[in-house]
Amino acid sequence: MLQALEGSQAIAQAVALCRPQVVAAYPITPQTHIVEGLARLIADGKLQCELVSVESEFSAASVALGAVAAGSRVYTASASQGILLMSEVLYNIAGLRVPLVMTCANRAVSAPLSIWNDQQDSMAVRDAGWIQLYCADNQEAVDTTVQAYRIAERTELPVMVCVDGFTLTHTLEPLEIPPQDQVDAFLPPFRFARALDPSYPVSSGTLVSPEYYTEARHAHHQALLRAKDEIVAADSDWAVLTGRASGGLLQVDGPDDARVAILTLGSVFGTLLDAREEYPQLGPVKLIKLRAFRPFPVEALQQVCVGLSDVIVLERALSPGSGGIAGAEVRAALAELPAAPRVHNFAAGLGGRDVPLDIYPRLLAATQSASPVRFAILDVELDKLPVEDR
Amino acid sequence: MSDLAGTLIPIVDLRRNQPRFRGLEAGHLACLGCGQALAARLVTEAAGPDVVVANATGCLEVFTTAWPQSAWRVPWLHSLFENAAAVASGMEAALKAQGKSAKVLAFGGDGGTFDIGFQALSGMLERGHNVLYVCFDNEAYMNTGVQRSSSTPHAAMTTTSPPGKARMGKRHLKKDIISIIAAHNIPYAATASVAYPSDIRKKVRRALEIDGPAFINIHSPCPLGWGHDGSLSIEVARLAVECGLFPVVELERGALTGTMPLRAPRPVTDYLKPQQRFAHLFQNDPRAREELEHLQALADYNIETYGLRGERPDPLDSAGADTVRRGGVRWA
Amino acid sequence: MAIYTRGGFALPETSLASKTGTWRLQRPIHRHSSAPCHTACPAGEDPQAYLAQVAEGRWREAWETLVAANPLPAITGRVCDHPCESGCNRGQYDEAIAIHNVERFLGDQAIREGWAYPVTPPSVNAHRVAVVGAGPAGLSAAYHLCRLGYQVTLLDMLPEAGGTLRTALPPYRLPREVLAQETQRLLAIGIEFLAHHALGRDVSLDELCADYGAVFLAPGRQQGREWSVDGRVPADLHTGLRLLQEWVAVGTIPKVKSAAIVGGGNSAVDLARVLRKTGAEVHVITHDALPKLGVPPEGAMKAIPREVKQAQEEGVMFHEHRGIQRLLLRGERVVGVEMVHMKKLPRPDGSIGIVPFEGTETVLHVEQIIPAIGQVVLAAGMERILEGSPFFAVDLWGHVANHPGVFAGGDARKGSRGTVSGAVGDGRRAALAIDGYLKGVATVEHHTEAIPLESLNLNYFEHEPRAEEPLLAVEQRSGDAEVAGGLVEPQVMAESLRCFSCGMCLACDNCWTLCPDQSVLKIKELASDGSHYVFDYDYCKGCGLCARECPSGYIVMEDELLFAGRY
Ligand SMILES: Cc1cc2nc3c(=O)[nH]c(=O)nc-3n(C[C@H](O)[C@H](O)[C@H](O)COP(=O)(O)OP(=O)(O)OC[C@H]3O[C@@H](n4cnc5c(N)ncnc54)[C@H](O)[C@@H]3O)c2cc1C
Ligand SMILES: Cc1ncc(C[n+]2csc(CCOP(=O)(O)OP(=O)(O)O)c2C)c(N)n1
Ligand code: SF4
Ligand code: SF4
Ligand code: SF4
Ligand SMILES: [Mg+2]
């Protein structure tokens, strides 16, 4: 049954359906509504759960870590500065191989201060060792949240579900909240083999010498690579149960004969779908939604890009001094193909700048250029800058 | 494997059958005579097996858990330097949610407690988590090679507060952590010293009986950082108490409810002299004399503020609290 | 090769694989050192050992430990001058342990309970040894010989055993019941006692030497010394000991208004008290100093300080550092004495002499002058051994030079302490020497230094007052009523708990509690070294904390090199 819900409330309900035992979070726009939603569910007695209202994101992540280590299913959420403040703990959670789920309500990072959406925050912690799944709409956010718990618990890796701030979190959309029995059928109760337990007192978080640190990192890398199967399986099992899929590692939309593709992460995917309808005259174009950024689905991506002439990567973050982040990785992945498509890389929609429909023709214009566009930020109005900074 | 002379009991069996709980086993890599190793052993012994421990980064964490080995016999987790209190909060919330009864302990050094982990600790106390936080106060960042912390005593030498032409060691005072903790109005806050094991045991048990946050700061000499022989750890800790520089007190809901009275306060020089970190105060230098007087005044201030001077000999005062008796602990 | 665990977790107590014992440069060991109470005890008792047993409520074992050295604890517990207490480390902290009262309690308890001496009767074909004199020296030798498996014949010219204890010690200090019980119980272990047997009269030394494997001579000092002042002797002169023996035997004592007793030993003081009880004015004149703090034992009166104190309480007047220079005689009757200040001082040749100081003369008016200046051996039957000297010249073990098989000790030897405990110790050592002699092995001395107070860690002890025995009030001190009472069981127990256990494990758990490396393990059974703990050298890093904090100085650090190959 479809209901119109704000993204944050929908996510809160999805989290509640997963029966978390501990929730720890700290307010930050645009994440706040999620934890407020959970607080309300708890206050109304609809969710039995320990809500730990911590004094910082650093503690939110730490509480979450401690709680999983003690064997509970936990949830936390943050954004932007909060994600960066957490970053030390995020690495730690991953390295300890404790499964938990957090929502990143994607937001730009200060300075200058901006509360508006881009994906710089989650991109900044892409190397923390977490699984990162990007959602294109709020239905996906709901479904991915449920799937994330199964993926996390089966892989013993933490999962960050990335949801664009405001664009999704604060937007009312008609969507389906799965019934509890469906979620229960999908997600068995949490059993953590390494949970701290006086009857089996193991020590976690030890000091590892150079003889083993490399192996520890290798194991972690392999765990993420292997998680691809779990991500795919979770999505297809969920689809069997609910009839809804979110695309597994990535989703391609468009005619088979298209020679051009635009790849993006998150809600811009929806904008591009609309734009393509708006500009049918621009020919067949595939739209690729990269759902899993970590693990990075190299093989899946290569597969869907065979035969393409141009792949345009549109992202909402950058690595200043280098260029695009997703773009660089896509370019590297596709370079291995025998007839490698040209990869163009653009950043847009930074700090809440609107991504209008007419971005679509401007992106496709890149295919006409003599050499691929290595990286450009779209929509920069140079006259807003002092001359020396242009 | 050595066999016991005369008794023919293999020593491993003996170790397994000690009439006390062993929370922290042998084979850890602490320096000789490490006060913190002893304090942690005593705390876990008193707390018993039904606990879960969150440990901050620091010597204790490093010397107990060099993978693949661990000296712990209690479930234990080290996350980071500054988040032991928060990790413990999470553990407590989880155990509560699961309806489990294990007690949560958090361990941190003075650096992890007074300084970098202070915010997380304050949050844990404010939220009323049922956690006993134990700070092993060795008055500097030892694990990184003896740098000053806010717990380092005034005038002490560390690698970041070296004495020299222009300085007499640390310029600032030791942070009054216990008052700050007590100001959170928590049910139980106490200081203790590794020189008084039975007092530690009593305080740990008392803290664990309480439902709500409790805090114990245990003065734990570090032979390496303080510059004294490992055999002197207890002696030095005892002198710190007996001179008044380390007051042993209990505060419940912010109110002073117990002190270890000093039977006959010793001059601070008795305490400072055996420690290399105060060696510069014993040079023929007027600044050194001034600092000695300053430290004496700080001790006197403690004695006055906490009313530490005992009126008559008391079995629980600084001279009586460590009295031993023949027979010790009886086998059950 | 270890396999990496997910997230890097480790299993409990796996650190035991790290043998941190390899770091060690020094190792703690348990080393039993003699307690000063032990080294000071002339009888060879180890009070530390039996105090420990008392503390654990093992009363009979405590008594057995005690009588392993001294078979007469009910007696010595009453009359010994207890040098153990003067040596007791606790005396430098607050007050010495009341060792003599613990000893007395155990001795009395054994009598009350009828505890048998832990001695197996000697076999019929065991070597035979003769002991002459049934005073404390002879009794002790006989007892220890018996313990060592010898058949012992003990002879004394008197009808009963006990020696001077029976003939001269006032019953208010040593009740005859106690003396009789203890000596009879002792003889009952299988000692053949021949009363009314005088050496020189009923049997000769040669006969004894022929019939027995060895002979121990302990005749005491039964012969009074000549006494005069400038060659003058009062008509009614009696030695103090003779008067005392008469009073002890038949209860008579000369009635005088005033008397001066010359001498500073127990006879002088006992006689003074006995005379004082008749109402006489009694003076004791001695070269020596009154016993008090700071006076070295060699400069002090030989009498037991507590007896001097009681005598003073009873009104006896002491004149220390005084000598008699002249008798004031009316005819042959004494009317007074001229005293002069005197002091023992080293002479130019290094020997010690008693020097009178001119111009310090005073006159004391007394009716009677009684010398109590000591006795010599009654030589009858032993002339060939004494060779004219007043005492036997023997070594530490009682060997009489040039007379193999003949041993001597107790008061009769030169340089004896002149005390019961000294006599008991002589008897014990002689028994060991006789054993060695009969087995043909040399007897060696195990000399041990007493552990000094500095080696203890006094932080672990609390000040506790010493339990004092009840004393009869001066007015109640009459007849044979024992002046000093004993302690009751809780007091004895409390004293035992005050003991520092110098040099021996106190079983206090301190090392077990304080080892940061969990390397001190506690054992239920007693370890072979007598402690309740063992070091686990696999892990002990040798920090020395346990040694430093051991309250009783029982743990010492030794260089690891000494143990090379013994790991
Ligand atoms: C008045 C007085 C009070 C004393 N008070 C104390 C005191 O409080 N504390 C203390 O420690 N000491 C005291 N003493 C000293 C103590 O009594 C002696 O040191 C001790 O008794 C010596 O023991 P002994 O066995 O060597 O000799 P004795 O006790 O003198 O015994 C010698 C025995 O040998 C026997 N004997 C001697 N010659 C022969 C022979 N030829 N044939 C057979 N038998 C023989 C004697 O009859 C006697 O029984 C006191 C002494 C006196 C005189
Ligand atoms: C965020 C962070 N900053 C710094 C460090 C480095 N560091 C590790 S332990 C330590 C000092 C620990 O001092 P303290 O808490 O007093 O414990 P001790 O080693 O003295 O027992 C420091 C500075 C770290 N691990 N993490
Ligand atoms: S440096 Fe200090 S605190 Fe650290 S292990 Fe050594 S003695 Fe203990
Ligand atoms: S304290 Fe005990 S062991 Fe030490 S000397 Fe005194 S009685 Fe002997
Ligand atoms: S305290 Fe422990 S580690 Fe140190 S010397 Fe004693 S037994 Fe060895
Ligand atoms: Mg520290």
Descriptive account of the structure:
The complex is a heterotrimer of chains A (390), B (332) and C (567). With 390 residues, chain A is α/β, with parallel strands linked by helices. Chain A is built from 12 helices and 16 strands. In chain A, the strands form 3 sheets. Chain A has a 7-stranded mixed beta sheet with strand order 3-2-4-5-7-6-13, with helices on both faces. A 6-stranded mixed beta sheet of chain A has the order 10-12-11-14-15-16, sandwiched between helices. In chain A, helix 2 links the parallel strand 2 (22-25) and strand 3. In chain B, 34% of the residues lie in helices and 13% in strands. Chain B is built from 12 helices and 8 strands. In chain B, helix 8 (197-209) links the parallel strand 5 and strand 6. In chain B, helix 2 crosses helix 8 and helix 4 packs parallel to helix 6 (118-126). Chain B is globular, with a radius of gyration of 20 Å. Chain B starts with 10 loop residues before the first helix and ends in a 27-residue tail after the last helix. The mean pLDDT of chain B is 95. Chain C has 3 domains: 3-32 and 504-566, Alpha-Beta Plaits (2-Layer Sandwich); 38-222 and 377-455, 3-Layer(bba) Sandwich (FAD/NAD(P)-binding domain), CATH 3.50.50.60; 228-363, FAD/NAD(P)-binding domain. In chain C, the strands form 6 sheets. In chain C, strands 4-3-2-5-16 form a 5-stranded parallel beta sheet, sandwiched between helices. Chain C has a 4-stranded parallel beta sheet with strand order 9-8-7-14, with helices on one face. In chain C, helix 13 links the parallel strand 8 and strand 9 (317-319). In chain C, helix 4 runs antiparallel to helix 6 (99-113) and helix 11 crosses helix 12. Chain C is globular. Chain C starts with 25 loop residues before the first strand and ends in an 8-residue tail after the last strand. Chains in contact: A-B, A-C, B-C. Strand 9 of chain A pairs parallel with strand 2 of chain B, so a sheet runs across the interface. Bound molecules: flavin-adenine dinucleotide, thiamine diphosphate (TPP), iron/sulfur cluster (SF4) (3 copies) and magnesium ion. Thiamine diphosphate binds next to helix 3, strand 3 and helix 5 of chain B.
